[in-house]
C-alpha cells in the first residue's frame, strides 16, 4: 500500500509490463483515470459522511452478499467498531446516474474493489488491508485516529 501526494491509495493490482490480466479481470480491478465529476463526488461524499465510519459492501451488514463483505463485517463487529454500511449492489447498473456513483466510490478512494472501509470520508482500505492492520494490532487505533 502506498500513498501519493493526494493521500489516495494506489490500486492493489500490480502487473509486470509483459503480463496483462484478462480483460474481464482488468475491467473489474482497474480504475479509469477520468476525473470524478462534481455531482457524483457530492453524492459519494454525502453517503460517506452519514456516520464517522462507513463500510461499502455488497449486501448489508445483517446479510452480506459475498465472503469478503461477510469477513469485513465480522472483523469490525468482533473489534467493537460501530459503523454504518452501504450496499453497493443496491445501485442499478442500468441507471447511468447510479452506475456513476458505484464507479465514483472506486475513483474517490482510488481503490478498485469492495468492501471498502472509510473513516471520516478517508479510505482505510479493503479486507486485506484491514485484516493486516488487525494482525498488527493497529486496526482499532487506525480507525479511531
UniProtKB/TrEMBL annotation:
Record's keyword annotation contains Signal: no
Record bears the keyword DNA damage: no
Signal peptide positions on this chain: none
Region (Disordered): 1-37
Recorded superkingdom: Eukaryota
Biased composition (Basic and acidic residues): 13-31
InterPro entries: Glutaredoxin (IPR002109), Monothiol_GRX-rel (IPR004480), Thioredoxin-like_sf (IPR036249)
GO cellular component, one term: mitochondrion
Keywords: Redox-active center
Pfam families the record matches: Glutaredoxin
SUPFAM superfamilies: Thioredoxin-like (SSF52833)
Domain Glutaredoxin: from-to ranges: 58-124
Protein name according to UniProt: Predicted protein
Lineage, uppermost ranks: Eukaryota, Discoba, Heterolobosea, Tetramitia, Eutetramitia
Amino acid at each position: 500500500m502506498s500513498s501519493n501526494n493526494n493521500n489516495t491509495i494506489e490500486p492493489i493490482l500490480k502487473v509486470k509490463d509483459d503480463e496483462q490480466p484478462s480483460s474481464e479481470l482488468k475491467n473489474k480491478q482497474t480504475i479509469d483515470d477520468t476525473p470524478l465529476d462534481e455531482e457524483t463526488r457530492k453524492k459519494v461524499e454525502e453517503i460517506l459522511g452519514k456516520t464517522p465510519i462507513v463500510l461499502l459492501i455488497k449486501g448489508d451488514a445483517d446479510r452480506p452478499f459475498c465472503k469478503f463483505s461477510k469477513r469485513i463485517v465480522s472483523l469490525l463487529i468482533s473489534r467493537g467498531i460501530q459503523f454504518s454500511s452501504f450496499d453497493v449492489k443496491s445501485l442499478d447498473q442500468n441507471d447511468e446516474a447510479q452506475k456513476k456513483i458505484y464507479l465514483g466510490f472506486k475513483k474517490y478512494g482510488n481503490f478498485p474493489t469492495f468492501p471498502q472501509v472509510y473513516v471520516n470520508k478517508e479510505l482505510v482500505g479493503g479486507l486485506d488491508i484491514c485484516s493486516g492492520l488487525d494482525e498488527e494490532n493497529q486496526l482499532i487505533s487506525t480507525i479511531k485516529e
